[in-house]
Design brief:
2 domains; mainly alpha; 206 residues
């Protein structure tokens, strides 16, 4: 078993680097359904269960206490505040309403299945709500704040990606009637153009 903190950290960093490298180098279509993040969570879980990695290590604590805050800061540093302010409008209200809906849905789902779940399962629902209101970085932040166990975080990531696999084809298929929906919802075409320009500018910066 690999138990030295530096070695554990090296294994985890290598796994993360490997799958992001494979995605960029091979262009494998499977990464569209099963993104690198899923593999980055699943492989260490597998290595832990077969006895290669330890269930507890100071390396995990370091990544949680130091790596996670640093990652969140790096994510926020790249935000173009000017672009965000330009495209703000009714979209902000829509996002707020959708976020409230996700949080309420998480609470109701937990209440519905609570008799069959362990006492601390609410933390997993909180992590999922974080993912669906702010992405993977938000999920990690919420999981850290709630004290979600690593194995439960892995389950949350798995559930998140299962939903993603089902939702993505529906989302891609919705493009065929997007124009009709926009007309029905009375969406300002200029707002769409601003969003597309902001997304393009962000992609070029990255």
């Amino acid at each position: 078993m690999i138990d030295h903190p530096a070695a554990v950290f090296a294994v985890l960093a290598s796994i993360a680097s490997l799958f992001f490298w494979l995605e960029g180098r091979t262009g494998w279509r499977g990464f569209r359904l099963f993104p690198p993040l899923l593999w980055i969570y699943a492989v260490p879980v597998l290595l832990n269960n077969v006895g290669v990695l330890p269930p507890k290590s100071s390396a995990y604590d370091m990544l949680s206490d130091v790596g996670l805050p640093a990652m969140l800061v790096l994510m926020l540093v790249s935000v173009n505040v000017g672009s965000v302010l330009r495209v703000m409008g009714r979209g902000v209200l829509v996002m707020l309403i959708a976020s409230v809906g996700v949080v309420v849905g998480a609470v109701l789902s937990f209440a519905l299945f609570r008799p069959w779940l362990p006492p601390d399962a609410w933390k997993l629902f909180g992590g999922l709500a974080g993912a669906w209101t702010g992405g993977t970085g938000n999920m990690a932040a919420v999981a850290g704040g709630l004290g979600l166990a690593p194995e439960d975080l892995g389950l949350a990531v798995l559930a998140d990606n299962v939903v993603y696999v089902v939702w993505l084809p529906i989302l891609l298929g919705s493009k065929s009637f997007a124009d009709r929906f926009n007309r029905w919802a009375k969406v300002d075409p200029r707002r769409i153009e601003e969003l597309e320009e902001a997304a393009l500018a962000h992609r070029e910066e990255v």
